[in-house]
């Protein structure tokens, strides 16, 4: 399976929690072909090792026939129980207690059961069962061999045998748990990486949408105003209620519409170039709007017939200008304010004021009188311009406020202007 161009490797069955951690509500894991092969080799090896040890003990200790038969029976049952050690480790370990006490053919199965005990059970349970094994082994050895040297040596050997096997199983458990933790951490990191990519893509889409709205809404509103004026003059001329438009007037109006359309396309290309180009990589970035471009923005609005009073109170701070990002935000705020005024109050006078100083902040304010009656919406809008503008100002560390007092609508942005 592949996700986002990277291969997702499945976790091996033997490494799944339920595959080696029993008694912890881990659920059942299906036995794989690998498991069957390992179990068959384990059973065969434990049986052969147990028979070899039993033969060695019979050669030197010469146990009675009934004790030999019991030894072989308990050892064989212990070896057979190894087939269920994965799903029932505690049951298998407890049922093997009689073999622990008296069976020498239990030697091979005992190693597997003790290792399995430490590997698959929580440490409290496994230590309790290990204690029973040590007690049963010691008592069995002393009862069969007595308190002489051979009996004590057998007890010491049994202690080392079970403690060594238990340590082996504990080491395997720790290693598997560590491997599983590493895999889980890698999976979590992969998921977080996928989420980060999704967040980055969403932020990129929002940035593109915000920039395109700021650029296109302004230009298209200017196009709508000029095209509306041309259409109105043409209707009046055709109806005979107004003077006929001269060829020169028609040509001038057409050129204004064409120039604004071309400028909209150019500005849109600049926006896409900025969003697609990394700093220091690829083509040089197009010049971004700044405070010096605000008067040109106001002149374009006036050329479209909008009444604009522009007050720039930022003179005298050329040695310590605002950050380029703040200047660009100021430009977008003025652009959005003039565009909204054209849409909602087309004949109202608009006031644009820039003020502030280093250390105290930069303030841009656009206000216009509220119309007596709401005009017919000749210029369509998305209704998200102010929301996107508020997000832009917030990302620049500022605050955007807007609203109406019943007589005028005011849009005000307060931005940081640090002292350099």
Shape: rod-shaped
Q: Radius of gyration, Cα only, in angstroms?
A: 43 Å
Query: Could you estimate the helical fraction of the residues in percent?
Result: 55-70%
Mean pLDDT: 78
Strand order of the largest sheet: 3-4-5-7-6
Secondary-structure-based class equals: alpha+beta
Distance between the termini: 54 Å
- What about the largest sheet? 5 strands, mixed
Q: Beta-sheet strand percentage? A: 5-15%
Number of helices: 12
Give me the count of strands: 7
Low-confidence stretches: 1-18, 22-27, 278-284, 378-382
Order of helices and strands: EEHHHHHHHHHHEHEEHEE
Task: Give a brief outline of the structure.
This protein is an alpha+beta fold. 63% of the residues lie in helices and 10% in strands.
């Amino acid at each position: 399976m592949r996700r986002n161009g990277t291969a997702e490797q499945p976790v091996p069955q033997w490494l799944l929690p339920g595959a080696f951690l029993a008694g912890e509500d881990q659920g059942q894991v299906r036995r794989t072909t690998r498991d069957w092969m390992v179990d068959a080799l384990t059973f065969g090896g434990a049986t052969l090792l147990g028979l070899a040890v039993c033969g060695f003990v019979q050669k030197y200790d010469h146990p009675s026939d009934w004790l030999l038969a019991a030894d072989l029976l308990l050892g064989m049952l212990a070896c057979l129980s190894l087939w269920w050690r994965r799903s029932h480790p505690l049951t298998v370990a407890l049922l093997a207690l009689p073999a622990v006490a008296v069976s020498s053919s239990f030697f091979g199965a005992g190693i597997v059961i003790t290792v399995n005990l430490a590997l698959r059970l929580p440490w409290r349970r496994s230590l309790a069962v290990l204690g029973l094994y040590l007690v049963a082994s010691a008592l069995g050895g002393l009862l069969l061999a007595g308190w002489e040297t051979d009996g004590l040596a057998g007890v010491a050997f049994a202690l080392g045998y079970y403690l060594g096997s238990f340590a082996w199983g504990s080491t395997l458990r720790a290693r598997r748990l560590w491997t599983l933790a590493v895999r889980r951490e890698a999976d979590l990191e992969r998921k977080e990486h996928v989420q980060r990519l999704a967040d980055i893509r969403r932020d990129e889409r929002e940035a593109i949408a915000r920039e395109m709205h700021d650029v296109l809404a302004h230009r298209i509103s200017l196009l709508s105003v000029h095209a509306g004026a041309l259409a109105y003059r043409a209707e009046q001329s055709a109806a005979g209620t107004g003077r006929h438009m001269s060829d020169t007037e028609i040509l001038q109006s057409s050129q204004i519409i064409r120039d604004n359309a071309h400028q909209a396309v150019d500005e849109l290309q600049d926006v896409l170039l900025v969003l697609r180009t990394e700093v220091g990589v690829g083509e040089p970035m197009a010049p971004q709007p700044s405070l010096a471009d605000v008067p040109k923005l106001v002149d374009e609005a006036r050329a479209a017939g909008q009444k604009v009073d522009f007050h720039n109170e930022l003179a005298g701070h050329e040695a310590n200008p605002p950050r380029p990002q703040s200047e660009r935000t100021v430009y977008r705020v003025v652009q959005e304010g003039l565009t909204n005024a054209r849409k909602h109050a087309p004949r109202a006078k608009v006031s644009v004021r820039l003020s502030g100083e280093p250390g105290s902040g930069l303030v841009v304010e656009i206000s216009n009188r509220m119309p007596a009656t709401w005009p017919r919406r000749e210029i369509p809008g998305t209704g998200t311009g102010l929301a996107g503008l508020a997000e832009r100002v917030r990302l620049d560390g500022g605050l955007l406020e807007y609203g109406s007092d019943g007589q005028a609508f005011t849009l005000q942005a307060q931005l940081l202007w640090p002292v350099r």
